[in-house]
Amino acid sequence: MTPAARALAVATAIAVAATGIGPAAAPAHAQSGVPRGLPIIRDTEIEQLMRDYAVPVLRAAGLAKQNVKVVVVNDRAFNAFVMDGRHIFVHAGALFDAKTPNEVIGVFAHETGHMAGGHLNRLREQLASAQTASIIALMAGIGAMVAGARSGGGAGEIGMAAIMAPQSAIQRSLLAYVRTQEDQADHAGLKFLTATHQSPRGMVDLFKRLSNEMLFNTRYIDPYLQSHPMPADRVAALEMQAKASPYWDRKDPPELQMRHDMMRAKLSGCLEPPGTVARRYPLSDQSVPARYARAISSYRHSDLRQAIAQMDQLIQLQPGNPYFYELKGQALLEGGRPKEAVAPLRQAAQLSRNAPLIDVMLAQALNATDNKAVAEEAVALLRSAVSRDPDVPQAYTQIAMAYGRKGDLANADLAAAQAAFARGDAMTARQLATRAKTRLPVGSPAWVRADDIVNVRPGNARAGN
Ligand SMILES: [Zn+2]
Q1: Residue 125: what pLDDT?
Q2: HSE-CB of 178 using CA atoms within 13 angstroms
Q3: What's the CA gap between 354 and 230, in Å, rounded?
Q4: Residue 227 C-alpha to ligand 1 middle, in angstroms?
Q5: Distance 26 CA to ligand 1 centre (A)
């Protein structure tokens, strides 16, 4: 694959089959600002950790009010990038490769530097104002990123396309421009780390590793380097500045390191084949993360009984950990035992203070018990979940099922319409919403929502809750 094509593959990753982290690892159709088809991992435990990594840095950058979300992309390659002012995208591969929280926080600090510097907007302007034929040819080489910029969908950072294409004055100026942005992002990142009393060491270590990889391995260039070119002198400059930080030797708090290790164990158990998990976390390793990885791997690849026994051991070790109950509930639910899944999921919901994704899974289990008596509870859980997190895949489908159980066909149609809308099927959405309208009292809030879907123009925003 040419470098340009590779950079493009990063910007608009092809959807892969959903993998089973948390209740849903699905293409983020409904998620606003997230490219369609980008395979997203949704998981409460990981998302909570990402928030805890990112929020201090974002606050130091003055971006606290922008409600920036970290989106985890289901891709093994090391990468992280920003495309607009509201999301930091990070590949599962980067989370897995980072040995410490500090390394991930360093990457976030750099990305936040791009965001705070308004680099994306300025790059877009620069491309938009380009008029010469050669610039257009160059832009064609950058492909989808430029298309994104033109449509206002957000340009990625300029990739290796710019570096590999034939030398020209324009190109050199663009390259210099990218290089300047990288230096600025490094510099800003260092500032945010210092402001939050965190060490810049993780950022330096990680960039060093990446830059060595580039030197010694000519066949494989990491996607991170394509969007953040990292010549040795840049890394050297960064290291010199970083070593002056008063927090250079500061370590991550042990409890944060533990959460990081748990996240990596989860990613391994969920995404890697059982043989790899067994090699990485051999039975001789009786640490909680190792047990976690093995329990997840067992549930995904071998028998449910063994997996449940491993999960029960974990629960015994840490009875206050919501994610162990969530895992057990998920395993039972997917194993076709929804009645048994309800109790652990209730526990997980309570311990996580009703994390939306966990509430949705509990509702899913309640729905699957085929018991009319709990349909009302399922509806309430789901409604509350989507009001707090509108991007939960499957939530509307579950709402439709719960209303169906209750015999409330009007609301079932409306929720099914919203589900169709969220997955991008506007025609089905319109048909269902039209039918819902005939069953709802004219002018009622539900009728208005149905009416909104009937009248929405293609390509428009999502239907409300
Ligand atoms: Zn960068």
Answers
A1: 56
A2: 21
A3: 42
A4: 6
A5: 27
Q: What's 372's DSSP letter? A: G
Listing DSSP states for 302-357 in one string gives: S-HHHHHHHHHHHHHH-TT-HHHHHHHHHHHHHTT-HHHHHHHHHHHHHHTTS-HH
The yes-or-no verdict on residue 101 having pLDDT over 60 is yes
Taking phi first (over 0 means left), then psi (-120 to 50 degrees means alpha), and beta for anything else, what does residue 89 get?
beta
SS3 at position 86: coil
For residue 136, the CA-to-ligand 1 centroid distance in Å is: 24
Q: How many residues does the chain have?
A: 465
What is the C-alpha to C-alpha distance for residues 16 and 28, in angstroms, rounded to an integer? 12
The burial class, CB within 10 Å (0-12 / 13-18 / 19+), for 103 is buried
Separation between Cα atoms, residue 418 and residue 461, nearest integer Å: 12
In the reported structure, the alpha carbon of residue 200 is separated from the centroid of ligand 1 by a whole-number distance in angstroms of: 15
- Inter-residue contact 81 to 72 (CB < 8 Å): no
Per-residue pLDDT, averaged over 306-335, amounts to 97
Non-local CB neighbours of 372 within 8 Å, separated by 6+ positions:
405, 406
CA of 95 to the centre of ligand 1 (A): 17
Q: Could you give the CA distance from residue 365 to residue 388 in angstroms, rounded to a whole number? A: 20
* Backbone phi, psi, residue 39, to 5°: -75, 115
* 274 vs 20: CA distance, rounded Å: 14
pLDDT digits (tens, 9 = 90+) for 7-17: 222 222 222 22
What does the pLDDT read at residue 169? 56
Supply the mean pLDDT for the chain: 80
Q: What is the pLDDT of residues 253-281, one digit of tens each?
A: 999 999 999 999 999 999 999 999 999 99
> Could you give the angle at the alpha carbon of 32 between the alpha carbons of 78 and 399, nearest 5°?
110
Instruction: Quote the ligand 1 centre to 380 CA distance (angstroms).
Output: 43
Task: Tell me the mean pLDDT in the region 336-364.
Answer: 97
Element (H, E) at 140: helix 133-142
pLDDT digits (tens, 9 = 90+) for 387-420: 999 888 689 999 999 999 989 999 999 999 999 9
Distance (Å, rounded) from C-alpha 68 to C-alpha 85? 7
**CA 117 distance to own-chain centroid:** 23
